């Protein structure tokens, strides 16, 4: 069913978790042609330095403007792309698009890191770690201008391709963030093994921060632990000023959320940068 969710005035196509088989097949088929049909877009959401209030990073978030169903959420189509092996091609496209944008912002004089999601299925044996680094060479872009966002579970993934790619990124100088931190199996010793730079506290802990003493205790513990390990903390899903104020008081480093801006197209992001 298409539902008006108010995101950037688009109508979002949403589905139950258990997609009807017929709809799934149709969507998967449409997704195969989405790149060629130029229906994919990369939006950017600002990440704010809580000390200075400045926009210091931009998370690249994929959008699918479907021909007839409107805007489809990545929460719906990324799992489908993973399931049928389309995520590598789509993920490579996102990477190149976002890296080119990072190059453009750099050329315009902005000191802005671009953060890119990479799901476990994208850490297969095709050596995309190397092709990504090679593309940065081509662009003449410093790897440290980019952050790769991985999931907590990836740190426990035993595949040699995972270790190789993560260490390859780290050695090249790319930064690494653990996304949705606190929702999976926490592999604390691996944070240092891979020299992780950022923990992103999952939105579910931020949502009730001002009402729930338990959530405050968890957020506080994550921030203290991260800092002791030499990592910086990004709070996800910050929607209200009281949440932001609590996070500043707790010593959180960065925040991202609707309080500042939803994910937006490049033009709108540039307007946010101009406003400062
Ligand atoms: P994520 O990486 O954790 O991204 C953050 C999600 O939280 C985004 O959802 C963003 O729109 C949403 N969000 C940000 N601030 C707020 C807030 O204040 N309140 C609420 N309620 N939500 C907020 P989005 O864009 O729908 O993406 C969902 C997930 O899809 C992402 O979660 C990520 O796991 C995946 N994804 C998106 N783009 C890509 C991509 O290019 N590659 C891969 N592998 N995964 C992607
Ligand atoms: Mg992310
Ligand atoms: Mg590092
Ligand atoms: Mg997240």
TrEMBL record:
Q: What is this protein called?
A: Putative Diguanylate cyclase
Full-sequence portion shown in this chain? 691 to 966 of 966
């Amino acid at each position: 069913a298409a539902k008006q969710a108010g995101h950037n005035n688009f109508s979002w196509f949403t589905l139950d978790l258990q997609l009807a088989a017929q709809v799934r097949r149709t969507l998967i088929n449409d997704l195969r042609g989405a790149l060629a049909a130029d229906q994919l877009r990369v939006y950017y959401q600002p990440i704010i330095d809580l000390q200075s209030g400045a926009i210091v990073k931009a998370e690249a978030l994929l959008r699918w403007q479907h021909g007839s169903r409107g805007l489809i959420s990545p929460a719906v189509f990324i799992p489908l792309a993973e399931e049928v092996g389309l995520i590598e091609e789509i993920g490579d496209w996102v990477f190149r698009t976002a890296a080119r944008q990072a190059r453009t912002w750099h050329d315009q004089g902005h000191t802005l890191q671009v953060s890119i999601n990479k799901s476990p299925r994208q850490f297969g044996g095709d050596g995309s770690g190397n092709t990504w680094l090679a593309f940065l060479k081509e662009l003449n872009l410093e790897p440290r201008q980019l952050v790769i966002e991985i999931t907590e579970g990836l740190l426990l993934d035993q595949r040699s391709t995972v270790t190789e790619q993560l260490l390859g990124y780290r050695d090249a100088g790319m930064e690494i963030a653990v996304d949705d931190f606190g929702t999976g199996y926490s592999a604390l010793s691996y944070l240092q093994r891979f020299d992780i730079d950022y923990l992103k506290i999952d939105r579910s802990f931020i949502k009730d921060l001002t009402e729930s003493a338990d959530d405050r205790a968890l957020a506080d513990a994550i921030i203290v632990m991260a800092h002791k390990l030499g990592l910086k903390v990004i709070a996800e899903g910050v929607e209200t000023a009281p949440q932001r104020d609590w996070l500043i008081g707790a010593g959180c480093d960065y925040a991202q959320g609707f309080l500042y801006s939803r994910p937006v197209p490049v033009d709108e992001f540039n307007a946010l940068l101009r406003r400062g």
